[in-house]
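Structure first, sequence second, as always.
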């Protein structure tokens, strides 16, 4: 399927699109599994650091002929910083650029081969039995094997489970192998690590969590484990580590000095929790503690403020999280009456991030913003809910599949009651909806309105067209469209039209991002605006064009089942009820 996208223009990110969030609890980690056996370390036949005297380097053409030990030695010599990415490229003035490229290429080829053999043959030596060069190759293969660490589908999780013994052994061996594992591999469990290993790993990672590598995330996972173990010895460790971070001369965007030190706030938060003190950053919510809405809507906005409850100032980011149409360093968590955590809304827009700055927040100072609940949560079925607002100063946690293992700030809870949607019969004209639906040409390229229909979408869907008139009816058209989905004679093309209309009317169940559901289509994105204390950002309409594509009828029918439950929540009632 060919695919063209012009993303919404993120225009103004006045360096300071709020920031905010706060002290509160950290996201509670799931119960730790029983500690796994700690892998044993073996003496390394090869040094973990580069030789004192610089060896004579081979030519690029000689690299494929090197044995594992010499290839590993060459890697240590050429790349003294194990956290550097092989994808960074090399300056044209670098006299070793061809040798570096050849070295990475050979390492990658051997790593893929060794890891495949390791995973396929259980009779091969275990990771703790391998010499340093051989172990380095399967570790690098494991890094390549896992792909994007943020993936949460079952295949990605299974890949992480497969390579876990390799990552653990790298941490046990320490040195550059440990640095490489902490930088490039996500630690899903650190309960197996000894106190000494936790301290060693913590000392190697002094940076905030971000989306580019795993160091900050792993550091927070380690901090969560320390909080679980507790004790005065750990309080001393975190106090010393916080002091070391304070000595770092911070460097911000474009090399400018910045007050934002690597992971300072998360370290301070962990220390305060060990000390039994309030979190340094707290989220304060304005307004009533109980909210109400009518399905599928959610309360439009809540006012949230980040408040420094500590005795000293520290730095917070401003901006940098608004381009997707929501302030993505925030997250709104919803639990139903049984305490079950409900899914968050998927990432809005085509891109994230944005321009940002950093600045100190003084003791008692407050930064305030407005959060649109509907941009963080999908439509909630009628019922009773408990909401909690969360914030992280480094990661866009709204877009994360899970925040387990992260140090986040939290608000107190809100209560939300969602009532069923009851549409008076007088507002429902089922015959008109069916006639307009029939008048939409199902053989023409589908037009999808990604937002509340209005002037901004008229270039795509004219207001005097059958589709424009149907969208103008609004929610009263939903009940008839839901009934239409049950028609066994519905063609895949007509079903695609109905699915796109339901999405446009409710902003739920986007079929354009669900695979071969619609075939060819053109989609217009609605405008959005994000405003907070100290700055903001906005975007104008954008578009997405899929000029050709097929419909998988079976997948389309399965996708349409998402709407079945809506019949319980959308009722047509006699006028005057």
């Amino acid at each position: 399927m060919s695919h063209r996208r012009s993303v919404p223009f993120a225009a103004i990110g006045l360096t300071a699109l709020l920031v905010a969030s706060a002290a509160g609890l950290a996201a509670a980690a799931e119960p730790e599994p029983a500690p796994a056996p700690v892998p044993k370390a073996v003496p390394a036949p090869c040094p973990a650091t580069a030789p004192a005297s610089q060896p004579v380097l081979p030519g690029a053409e000689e690299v494929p002929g090197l044995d594992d030990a010499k290839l590993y030695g060459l890697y240590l010599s050429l790349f003294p910083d194990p956290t550097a990415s092989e994808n960074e490229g090399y300056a044209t003035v670098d006299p070793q650029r061809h040798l570096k490229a050849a070295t990475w290429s050979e390492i990658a080829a051997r790593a893929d081969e060794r890891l495949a053999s390791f995973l396929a043959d259980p009779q091969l030596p275990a990771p703790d039995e391998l010499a340093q060069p051989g172990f380095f190759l399967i570790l690098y293969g494991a890094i390549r094997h896992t792909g994007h660490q943020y993936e949460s589908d079952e295949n990605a999780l299974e890949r992480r489970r497969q390579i876990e013994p390799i990552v653990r052994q790298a941490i046990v061996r320490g040195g550059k192998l440990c640095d490489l594992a902490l930088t490039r591999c996500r630690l899903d469990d650190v309960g197996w690590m000894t106190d000494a290993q936790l301290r060693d790993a913590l000392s190697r990672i002094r940076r905030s969590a971000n989306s580019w590598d795993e160091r900050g995330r792993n550091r927070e996972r380690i901090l969560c484990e320390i909080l679980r173990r507790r004790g005065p010895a750990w309080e001393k460790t975190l106090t010393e580590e916080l002091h070391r971070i304070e000595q770092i001369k911070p460097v911000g965007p474009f090399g400018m000095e910045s007050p934002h030190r690597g992971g300072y706030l998360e370290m301070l938060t962990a220390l305060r929790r060990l000390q039994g003190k309030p979190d340094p950053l707290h989220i304060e919510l304005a307004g009533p503690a109980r909210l109400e809405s009518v399905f599928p809507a959610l309360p439009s906005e809540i006012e949230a403020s980040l408040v420094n409850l500590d005795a000293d100032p520290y730095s917070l980011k401003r901006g940098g999280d608004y381009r997707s149409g929501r302030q993505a360093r925030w997250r709104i968590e919803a639990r139903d009456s049984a305490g079950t955590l409900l899914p968050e809304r998927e990432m809005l827009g085509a891109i994230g991030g944005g321009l940002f700055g950093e600045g100190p927040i003084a003791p008692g100072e407050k930064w305030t913003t407005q959060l649109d609940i509907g941009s963080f949560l999908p439509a909630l079925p009628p019922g009773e809910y408990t909401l909690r607002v969360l914030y992280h100063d480094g990661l866009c946690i709204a877009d994360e599949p899970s925040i387990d293992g992260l140090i986040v700030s939290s608000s107190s809870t809100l209560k939300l009651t969602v009532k069923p949607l009851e549409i008076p019969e007088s507002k429902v004209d089922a015959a008109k909806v069916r006639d307009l639906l029939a008048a939409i040409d199902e053989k023409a390229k589908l037009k999808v309105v990604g937002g509340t229909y209005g002037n901004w979408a008229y270039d795509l869907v004219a207001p005097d067209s059958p589709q424009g008139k149907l969208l103008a009816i609004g929610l009263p058209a939903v009940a008839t469209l839901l009934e239409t989905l049950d028609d066994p004679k519905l063609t895949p093309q007509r079903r695609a039209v109905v699915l796109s209309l339901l999405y446009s009317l409710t902003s739920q169940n986007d079929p354009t991002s669900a695979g071969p559901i619609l075939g060819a289509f053109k989609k217009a994105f609605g405008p959005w605006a994000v405003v907070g204390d100290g700055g903001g950002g906005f975007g104008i309409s954008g578009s997405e064009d899929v000029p050709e594509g097929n419909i998988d009828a079976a997948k389309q029918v399965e996708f349409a089942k998402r709407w079945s439950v809506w019949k319980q929540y959308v009722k047509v009632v006699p006028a005057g009820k």
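Margin note: The first helix runs from residue 68 to 78.
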